[in-house]
Design brief:
The chain is α/β, with parallel strands linked by helices. 42% of the residues lie in helices and 11% in strands. The chain contains 14 helices and ten strands. An eight-stranded parallel beta sheet has the order 3-4-5-6-7-8-9-10. The chain starts with a helix and ends in a 5-residue tail after the last helix.
Length: 428
Amino acid sequence: MIIVTIIVLALVFLIGFFMNYQDNESDVVDAGIFESPGADGTATDILDEEGEEAQTDDIPFEEAVWEYRIDRAMGHPNCPPVPEIEYPVDYYKGRLIDSHFHIANLPDSSPGDEEGEEVFYSAYFGEDNNENNEDGDNDEEEQENEVMPLLGKNIKISDIVCTLEHEGTDKVFAFFPVYPDIPAQMVEVVKRTMDLYPEKFVPFIMAPDSDNSPGGLSTVKSSVLTNMLSIYPGLFKGFGEIGLYPKEGGSRELPPDDPVLRDIYPVVRENKLAVYFHPGENMEDNFEIVLKENPDINFIVHGEQIEKPDEIGALMKKYLNIYFTVNDLYGDKYLLHTQGSTEDFLEALDNYEPLLKKDLATWQKLIEEHPNQFMWGTDRGGIAVWTLDREVGKKITDYGRTFIGKLNPTVRERFAYKNALRAMGEEV
């Protein structure tokens, strides 16, 4: 009897061990980004971001590091309770959709090169990555890294969601960067974000092609874009933001009727995407050509290069498939830049009245003349991590609700969120 009991217990243990092993393997497969085996070295014990022992189960080195980075990019929900917000009588109190929001990059350095990844290198190869531990770090680069948002480093998706919850923004048009050399990993960030927060983000694919280099472009070509979109078909709802202006020391001007973009529009149409552009100077005629040729594609633009009444207003009179995001509020100035700070921004918005006077003079007439084509937005998150601060978010939306409350009552909801839904093809 004792022998039978021992045999049964042993079988239970072996079955449990086997099932646990299989579950760990399937978690890696389910991630959807790691398909090819092969790395020089494996490890069984490493530390995860919480300092706990994590099992790799013979996952190749590079795959383990990317999984670690993506997990850190997601973060873990730890948002304090959102207090009930009471708005003054003259504020707009309804839904808000931010139609211009940048998601930070995932670190794109070689696996093992980022701070904190030394434990992977040591565990897999039994030695330190000396190249990553040399003295004489570039102070200027470190300072830039503190300012620039970087997923998993100084900002996480869970942090962004917490800010949106506290400020009262329903959802955002989110520009997710996807680079040609690591498309699967960067698209995986989008997939996991949408799995966790499907109601908070409208995902746009922003795929530059070495746009900081003279031979680069502000977007990948159509064949590359097609491959990126095929990783998770139907995941993305928009294409952009794409800067059409020339970058200093980088990519050339790219008018909307450029052959590169004309090749992309069929891909956009096939995947039912909206398009988001930041035009360059004097591109109204180029836009007219594209709007006329593609009446079934909705184009969203923003920027001082096309915001005048005889520019965007003239196009809107002729074409219903062009929309404009108003994000240069705060006295018709862009304040969310790298040289700013949370304190500077809050101080600049200490007194709304003179700022509202300028903003209403610039925008009210134009918005009310084209009530179905203007949208509220913020243009934050791309170049300075402080712009994602919770207090900044609350001040941004507070000012936005004040501005919207000054518009004609018949226009307020359209500007605040309905036109954003309409631009994405939804019935309103």
